[in-house]
Every structure is written in C-alpha cells, then in structure tokens.
Amino acid sequence: MGGSDPTRNLALELVRVTEAAALAAARFMGRGDKEAADGAAVNAMRIVLQTVDMNGIIVIGEGEKDNAPMLYNGENVGNGLPPDVDVAVDPIEGTRPLAFGRTNSIATVAMAPRDSMFNPGPFVYMNKLAVGPEAKGVINIEKSITENLQAIAKAKHKDVEDLTTIILDRDRHKDMIAEIRKAGARIRLIPDGDVAAALMTAWPGSGLDVLLGVGGTPEGVIAACALRAMGGEIQGKLYARDEDELRRGREAGYDFDKILTMEDLVSSEDVFFAATGITDGELLQGVHYFGDSASTDSLVVRGLTGTVRQITATHRIDKLRELSAVKY
Q: What's the angle, vertex CA 269, arms to CA 55 and CA 20, rounded to 5?
C-alpha cells in the first residue's frame, strides 16, 4: 500500500473526536434546543478532528458551505499530514431525541481512503436494507420484503416469526410495515436514529435482525462504513421525494434505479468508524456526570482487521477545560 493509505489504526484517534462531541452535546439533553446542542457537538468535533494525523476531506458533513459554517461538505480537516482520506461525520445522530431527553442519540465519525466514499450530493434520502454478518450475502433490495425476511431467517436458522425488524416510524413506511406484519416478523418502530439501528443488526445480543425503510443517505454511507468493518451488509437505492427531485437527480447523473451495494457506498476495506453515546441507548450508554468527571461509552471499529472495541472512559472535566478550547 502507498504512503498515503490509512494503514495506521486511526480509529483510536477518531474516538477522541466522538467523545468530545458527545461530552459537549450531552449538556443539552432534554433542554429542547436542537440548534444549541448541534452547534456544541460540531464545534467540539471539529476542534479535535484538526489534531488528527490525516489530510481529510468531508464527504458527508453538515451540508454545503453556505448553510454550515463548520464540518461542511468539501471542508479540509486534520493536520494535513498523510494519509489522504474521506471523512463522514454526524456530530449528533438523533438531535431530536437529545433535545427531548430520549434514548439512542450518538456522535459518529467514519474515515476511509480518499475517493472511496459515495457522495450523495443533495439527494438526502435512500431506501435501505441492513443486516449483520450471519445474513450477509443473502439480501436483495430489489426483492420483496417477504422474500428478504425469508432469506434472512434461513441464513440465521430461524423462522420469520423469530425475526425482529427495525424501521423508522414514518407515514411513508405504512405499506412496508403492513407487509412485515403479514409476513409474521416482529417490528421495532423507532422515532429517529437509523445509524445506531443499522449497527445493532450486527451487534451480538441486540436482538435485532434487519433494518428496513427510507432514511438519510448520509447516514447510509456512515452505516456502510461501520457495517463493512463489523462484517454486516447494507444495500440502498436513492429515494426521490417528488418528481422534481427525481428529475434534478437524473439531470445531475444520479441513478435512482441502481442498487447501491457496500462497494458503492464505501469501496475500501480500510475503513474506520467510531461512535460515542450521548443519551443512553441499547447500543451505547450515554454521557453520565459525577461532579468533577464524566463517563463515556464508545464503539470503535477498524475494517482491515475487523476489530470491534468497546471503550468506556472517565474524563476529568476540570482538566479537559484547562487543556481544550472545547466547551465541556
């Protein structure tokens, strides 16, 4: 591999990034202010990202430069040293759950070699199908939900009735939910957070077998980085919300009929992913405070080795405030 390939284990540097975002954002739990929480997480994430040994470009960020002053798509991050990498960030996945004190809000960041991540441009929705390692290779987003559930059940040596699906609670999923019910599988409806949901399909003991439904395209790319490293699989198809979006997408060269495979979403095995819990959830504990300190719970994954680490850390808030520009 060349000198600019990310062969070092940068995942352990990335976890500092998600920890900082989680610690900054967790102060806003339940305070009803999504913008303030997001601003704190973005600022903290960017400050720590700039210290990482990499020449990064944000492919999945907070939107275009005009709308996002920091961590915008196309922004350079890192200290400029090799390797050259694509970076995907979601400083708060689940701003609404955080703002209203609900579960499963996390901070995430992913990294892969330059030009290996899918850039969705302005097309922010995709239909997704994600599974863990046991069902890798048996899913096909072109087939019916019933056929996919049968294939997943067979691969996992279960009956369809034993499967638990997870899907965003949205009106657009009404027909999908009806078909899942008719097939006999169980359903977990979630208000937000389909990156965490996708990860849980590959997390032993989560009890979740498959993520279905239309969610964010940026979140799909981030989930693909994590699942690629964790041995799972995700497939997607871009989803147009109306005829105008479909027309604009096709004019820009996007194919709404193409199956986006893992290889399309992130084309390298040399991926890194980190997530830190902001509020308590099934995947990760949130930030807990103890007077002069705070604890974080993080998941850190390296694609080349398939190593998954769970890192519980205790942070001395007074010391962090002395050393860092981040507002903890």
A: 50
